[in-house]
Design goal:
The structure holds two protein chains of two kinds.
Chain A: E1 4-13, E2 16-26, E3 31-35, H1 42-49, E4 57-62, E5 65-66, E6 75-78, H2 90-100, H3 105-118, H4 134-146, E7 152-156, H5 164-179, E8 183-187, H6 191-197, E9 200-205, E10 208-214, H7 215-222, E11 226-232, E12 246-254, E13 257-264, H8 270-278, E14 282-288, H9 293-302, H10 310-317
Parallel strand pairs in A: 3-8, 3-9, 6-7, 7-8
Antiparallel strand pairs in A: 1-2, 1-4, 4-5, 9-10, 11-13, 11-14, 12-13
Helix pairs in contact in A: 2-3, 2-4
Chain B: H1 2-16, H2 19-45, E1 50-56, E2 71-75, H3 80-89, E3 94-98, E4 110-113, H4 120-143, H5 147-153, E5 161-162, E6 169-170, H6 172-206, H7 209-213, H8 219-259, H9 263-272, H10 274-280, H11 295-306, H12 310-338, H13 346-361, H14 363-368, H15 373-378, H16 385-392, H17 399-427, H18 437-445
Parallel strand pairs in B: 1-2, 1-3
Antiparallel strand pairs in B: 3-4, 5-6
Helix pairs in contact in B: 1-8, 2-8, 6-8, 6-12, 6-16, 8-12, 10-11, 12-16, 12-17, 17-18
């Protein structure tokens, strides 16, 4: 059973459709990426799940139960735009938000102590929020979001405002939360973090869900038999010597090395191609080019075929 | 409900702990107490005798200008030039020169001064005394009358009012004062605490705190928590003001009573205190002495004060303050939610401030005719009733009017809250958009 399911959610504003029949299924104990360009309707969907805004049509189920106001304590939400009371003391403020989530004061205090020490901000307990750096404020907000141990966590751009070190700390915490049984919905524009973190994704564009599934499966679906090949000891034009089973998309001669992008067109396999290529020279490297989430995202949003490019691939492996 | 309480607690504590609240709480009573205490000192310090030399060439005024404790007339026999020279050497305050009347200047006098220019109190006193002498002379010469006889014939009528049904009597000035004071207090507190609500909402919206909070509580809970929290701040402030002012005045009275025990000074105390003290704090208004000539007047004030049902007035004040504030607080919150910063509030403030200011401006007409149609309607309509009803109240308000006004105010509060909640709900999550009335109208229909 899915932890969260939305069925045919539709939301209309006065002069535009924000969500059109959007159904998503979030399996338990997974990290679910909610992707889409700006203004696609992600935040609206998140607000509907959080019961901040109401939906016009459709149903939402949390753990098989119809979502009601009393489920709010099982959800933790870290909005993209977030703030704290500037004049309030850090500890006092964290306590306030924890209590609003239904924790008792003593419980909240105990848990806050633990998290503040973990994130090394315990010394700031009695300081005013305005004295904190942005990164530290983000930490406080992260703590407040996860403190009441909700089953469902929704993070909207959780890494914005963090330096790489702190972003890693947060990333590790997100994995740990999943291990401990939480389900995480994660909304972002940062595709590399999607590949790193997400088990499943949904892509929303112009109020419609246009893609949903496991990250691995999606990537496999969108790969199209293109291989990166490096061949040594061959300095003729490869294109002119290959049969119609193969399409050379790109060919570069770099000193003794020939680098090419080859697409297998017919039913021939990778092995067939290797055998064919072996006749031309020494194969230095051969690798299937798998589309990145970035490629898929851009392609789906622009509604055209996947243009693979190696440069974006290398970006991801950085 | 539990969460609303948590919000109320935060809104209350974060404001009560503020330095500005503490300063206001301390300064308020000091200001109010000094309003009552300072006149006492002024009357004591103002008793410096100012000597006025008089050179009278007409002979009419000689010996007739009456001195009092602050202005002392001193008749000089020398001519004006010597007198002027003497003025510089003597300790006299100024020199009054009355030349022989000429055709062009029949009633003419000149006041010479050396270092300090005489204040208006001295000049008007001199004028008044000169007029008195001249009038007296005219009366005497032409009608054979003495001004003193005329004064004796003058009577002073003190119109006392009494309610036929209850037997209560009252003085119109005091009634007016009580009503106005309560009305103005409500007017200012609605503005003060209403704008606090508005600023709080704007703070949460612009800093995006709201995004975090609305995922835990319903916007309505936050709205109510904020409004009620600030209402409690207001009530706390009033309570502290009353207690502290009473404390300061009591301590002062006690110290004055022990340090100044001779009857002459007691009289001054009584002259300066009764009206302010009794009207503001009637329960504390027992005079300590009745020896002076003013005691008659005092007694009449006292008896009329005791005829107001102050418990009822204070309870009504609290009712109209609380519900009037709640009504306006909700509207202020709605404005705060619709804008991105305080500068944008202007266009929406107008419809809210107009009824308040109107009620304030109308107060004079309402006092003139507290039972008229104007007073009736303004004290019934919920937007103006908190102020206007408080002004009417001491004059006596029919039970029907009162019940109608209170009922409508509660309805108005519910309506305003419903309206505000709808605007608030949409407004707090709407950024970067210049909001128009048309837009708000749309929100109401969501």
């Amino acid at each position: 059973m899915n932890l969260l399911e939305t069925r045919n959610i539709t939301k209309r504003y006065a002069n535009h459709l924000a969500l059109n029949n959007v159904s998503i299924s979030v399996p338990p104990q997974s990290i679910y990426g909610l992707l889409g360009p700006n203004g696609a309707g992600k935040t609206t969907l998140i607000r509907i799940i959080n019961m901040i805004t109401s939906h016009d049509e459709g149903e939402i189920f949390l753990n098989g139960e119809k979502l009601l106001q009393n489920h709010i304590e099982q959800i933790g939400y870290l909005p993209e735009e977030r703030g704290l009371y500037k004049k309030m003391k850090v500890g006092e403020q964290a306590l306030y938000f924890a209590q609003l989530k239904g924790l008792s004061r003593t419980d909240a205090l105990k848990k806050l102590k633990f998290w503040f020490e973990k994130f090394e901000i315990a010394a700031w307990w009695n300081r005013k929020v305005e004295e904190l750096s942005k990164g530290m404020q983000q930490k406080v907000q992260f703590i407040v979001t996860v403190l009441h141990e909700p089953k469902l966590l929704i993070f909207d751009e959780p890494f914005s405002g963090f330096d790489p070190i702190n972003a890693n700390i947060i990333k590790d915490e997100i994995f740990r939360l999943r291990e401990n049984g939480a389900t995480i919905i994660f909304s972002t524009h940062n595709m590399s973090s999607v590949e790193e973190l997400c088990d499943n994704i949904a892509l929303i564009n112009k109020a419609n869900k246009i893609l949903e599934g496991k990250v691995k499966e999606i990537k496999n679906t969108y790969k199209n038999n293109v291989y990166h090949v490096e061949l040594a000891g061959y300095n003729q034009i490869l294109k002119e010597h290959l049969n119609h089973d193969y399409l050379i998309e790109e060919e570069i001669h770099d000193d003794e090395l020939l680098k090419a992008k080859i697409r297998i067109l017919n039913s021939s396999s990778t092995n067939d191609m290797i055998q064919t290529l072996m006749k031309f020279g020494n194969i230095h490297a051969i690798q299937e080019i798998i589309p990145t989430m970035n490629d898929i995202f851009i392609a789906k949003v622009n509604n055209d075929s996947i243009h693979l490019n190696t440069s974006s691939n290398s970006n991801l492996t950085e | 409900m539990k969460k609303t309480l948590i919000i109320i607690k935060r809104e209350y504590l974060s404001r009560v702990k503020k330095r500005s609240f503490i300063i206001m709480t301390i300064l308020g009573p000091i200001l109010m107490a000094s309003l009552m205490i300072v006149p006492f000192f002024i009357s004591k310090w103002g008793e410096e005798v100012k000597k006025v030399d008089v050179v009278d060439e007409t002979g009419i005024y000689y010996g007739h200008l009456a001195s009092n404790k602050s202005v002392q007339f001193n008749y000089v026999m020398s001519d004006i030039n010597t007198a002027k020279a003497d003025l510089l050497k003597s300790d006299s305050y100024c020199l009054l020169y009355i030349p022989k009347p000429s055709l062009t200047k029949p009633n003419y006098a000149l006041l010479f001064y050396s270092s300090k220019q005489p204040g208006i109190s001295v000049t008007s006193y001199i004028e008044e005394k000169m007029e008195y002498v001249l009038e007296n002379k005219t009366l005497h010469d032409q009608f054979g009358l003495d001004k003193k006889d005329l004064d004796a014939a003058k009577t002073n009528i003190n119109l006392q009012m009494e309610n036929v049904q209850t037997g209560e009597n009252s003085s119109p000035e005091l009634t007016t004062f009580i009503g106005l004071f309560a009305g103005i207090l409500i007017y200012f507190s609605i503005f003060m605490f209403g704008s606090q609500v508005m600023r709080g909402v704007i703070e949460e919206k612009t800093s995006r705190i709201i995004e975090v909070i609305v995922s835990s509580v319903k916007p309505f809970q936050l709205l109510m928590g904020k409004i009620i929290g600030i209402a409690l701040v207001g009530l706390t402030q009033f309570l502290l003001w009353i207690v502290l002012t009473l404390g300061i005045v009591t301590v002062f009275q006690a110290s004055v009573a022990t340090s100044v025990s001779n009857p002459k000074h007691d009289k001054t105390v009584q002259q300066d205190f009764p009206v302010q003290k009794n009207t503001l704090f009637p329960e504390n208004a027992q005079p300590q002495t009745h020896k002076s000539d003013d005691s008659d007047m005092m007694n009449s004030v006292m008896s009329s004060v005791s005829h107001y049902d102050f418990v009822a007035i204070i309870l009504m004040f609290l009712f109209f303050f609380i519900f009037g504030y709640l009504l306006y607080g909700a509207l202020f919150a709605a404005i705060g939610s619709a804008v991105d910063n305080e500068a944008d509030t202007q266009q929406f403030m107008l419809p809210i401030t107009i009824p308040l200011i109107l009620a304030f401006v109308m107060s004079q007409s309402i006092i003139n005719n507290p039972q008229g149609p104007l007073a009736f309607w303004f004290s019934i309509i919920p937007l103006t009733s908190p102020i206007v009803m408080m002004i009417r109240l001491p004059f006596g308000v029919p039970v029907f009017d009162m019940v109608l006004s209170m009922g409508l105010l509660v309805l108005g509060f519910l309506g305003a809250t419903w309206l505000a909640a709808k605007i608030y709900r949409t407004g707090i999550l709407m950024y970067g958009k210049k909001i128009s009335y048309k837009e708000i109208w749309k929100w109401l229909k969501y």
